[in-house]
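Re: the pair you flagged

First of the two:
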Amino acid sequence: MLASTTKSATLGSQSEEDMTGKASPVKVPNMDVERAACDASDSDRAAFERRIMRRIDLRMLPLLGLLYSLALIDRTNLGVARIAGMGEDLDLSVGARYSVVSCVYFIPYILLELPSNVFLRTFGTRNLLSFCVVAWGAVQSAMAFVPSWRYLALCRVLLGAFEAGFFPALVFIITTWYRRHEVQKRLAAFYLISILTGGFSAILAYGISQLAGRAGLNGWSWIFVIEGALTIVFGCVAWAFLPEFPDNNTFLNSEEKKFVLQRIEEDRGDSLPDAVTIWKVLHHMSDWKIWVYGIMLMCATIPAYAIGFFVTVILSGMGWNLELALLLSAPPYIFAALSVFVFAWLSDHFRSRAFFLAVQTLLTLVGFIITGFGHQPGWRYFGLFLGNAGSAGCIPGILAYSSNNIVSHSKRAVTTAIIISLGGLGGIIATTIFRQEDFPRYIPGIIATISCQVLLLVLLGVLTLHFWYQNKAKRNTAEGSPGGRIDFLYTL
């Protein structure tokens, strides 16, 4: 056991600007971590910390990344299924049917994220998340047998309902386990697993579609059957291994649990949960910064969803045949995975969020300009690399930026759900601005996406400037007070 410190913290329900504990603060119990030996060296403690954090990483990140990659595959495989025969069989090219089928998924997805996150502790993370995975896998399999586009739309609504609580819960859980400047690498780690998997999902789906005619099913039906069954299997496996929150996990012993909680307590003072009430939820929702974060994520998800839903269609519109379009859809995701992790490492290392977010937003903007207005297919394809890498990196970056500037579990639950809900709104926008009548170049959708990146940069500047002034005011106040203590500073 490690260095002994005695710390008792109080955490009120106020926002970060008011941490005086006026509203019936929750007392955090003593978080002592005793020494295993009085002469334990710093190197021993560092080795202990590395071992525990490596164990946590291996327990959480690969599994969560795999499950989220299944979620992304199941929500975006419509594009491949469409060009594998579903479009003709269900007449999806008529009017705005494909956009409608793609869009309706996000309505329950947006509406149910907040209630799911609020009740996550009540139901238990393993119970709720494994149920979600198995349920949406069953819906995915059922999509193989729909007789018309209307039934397909109904299945997409159910898919959105069951996936709603999954992603915000993952972000919520991960951000409770790590210190503020360890978060983005972890978010990027599980997210890049999904990026890499998603990059090859189109090729996988096309391979599955070659089963056309077996058991009387079309190729696109086999895509849904096999990928849905795979999701169900992993959902059952996940029930045994999904992590709980740090304070009630079962894979660490009591000594290790105390150590993890102590790290969080020293970093931001919210290692243990506070009670969630309707008034506290409403109070958190009144914080304007939550909505700014959400709009920023919405702007970042528009290009990400546009590429996810339409990349094979866009590539085929550049003149490549179906096989080449599917093969060429993978390299931009490989490049994006590498870019996401590099930027996440830099952001954590330099303890800076806004600057690296701005750089990645500019990458997205430049990429979509090249893809939309370039004349040569090679240059337009190169634009997809930049656009995909920038938008994919902004998503964990914005989530890390917001989580770094939140105190209390209740606010973390509310903030994460609202931000990701607005990110889902980006999916609705992406599926409606890339219209069938604009094929193959989708110029109106490209212009709208570029405009959203400009908006993201403006909001990022406003938020960062606000945090800078808040930090400056806190430092000035601390310099003029006897104790000179600053409880909380925003991460810029």
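Second of the two:
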Amino acid sequence: MPKAAKTPLSALFALNKPTGIPSMTLLNRLQPLFSASALFRDPNKPQQDDSGKRGGRGGRRGGRGRRDDKVKMGQGGTLDPLADGVLVVGTNAATKSLSRFLDCTKEYRAIGLVGCSTDSYDSQGKRVRTCAWDGVNRQSVEDALARFRGEIEQTPPIYSALKMDGKPLYEYARTNTPLPRPIPPRKVTVFSLELVRFVDGAEHDYAYPEDELDEPARKELERLEKMVKEGRTEVPAEDEVAAASEPAPTSTEPTARPPIFEIKMTVSSGTYVRSIVHDLGLALGSAAHVVKLTRTRQGEFVLDPPEASTAALEAQDEAKKSGTEVEGRDADGWLEWERDLLSKCKEV
């Protein structure tokens, strides 16, 4: 680690994003911490004092309503709120280098819960239907994985953040709005796909979402999904969907807990892991949705047991907000979290 760092620091580094928080919300939470750090603050810019006035250079603000003391931050590929793991972050001029992480190889680990599909393909959605899982075992999952390896075609799920005419697909879904044009299937590559473990229901605590789509909402979802999968711009008629749909059988053991499977994969950019788990459930003659998703690698950044986690950074942020004096500056004047970040970042 260099004894001194160029400031303001333009660097790429990765955070271990916790589950349950959107990627940009995490960056917004870290903004006050980074803005107060000498690592990222531009010493040539006037800083705002406690009264809200600018010091130096006439004390002017950088434009009406603008906070030019904020650090420029961005992320190289968002993670769903449910997901955790590697989130690549860029600061200052290094934000220009984030685009290369949108088109790079990624690694994930995902846990799928068998016997239930949801509208979002994960546990944060609502139950669409429950199915029997008789015959689903380790061997059947191993056998089914073969069809998802290599180059495959995927159509983005209707509840995805993919934008069309500036609006995410999930907004079209929530308002039952016809798509302005068809969504073409995209070719993605699954370089490796492996079953890590298969666990019977008695050996885990995962459960189906409590909320269930009512019948009208379920029918509307089926119509939208049919529209997306067939590349149509108009919403198909209800009777057309009903004729093509076969109701899935309800489990004959409603009190039993279904099994889970955990898979790990290396995939190309643009691969929808939730779709793989959803489609794998169908290939097993049942259903499945994601209950845990972790991005373990993105480009050159790999998830390891972190010495300085996001929780540690937030703890420093809370100390700053509460006025607590933060000890631990080294001979160069860096705090512990700043030293840790310097040892892991890639200066650009």
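The longest helix spans residues 215-229.

-B.
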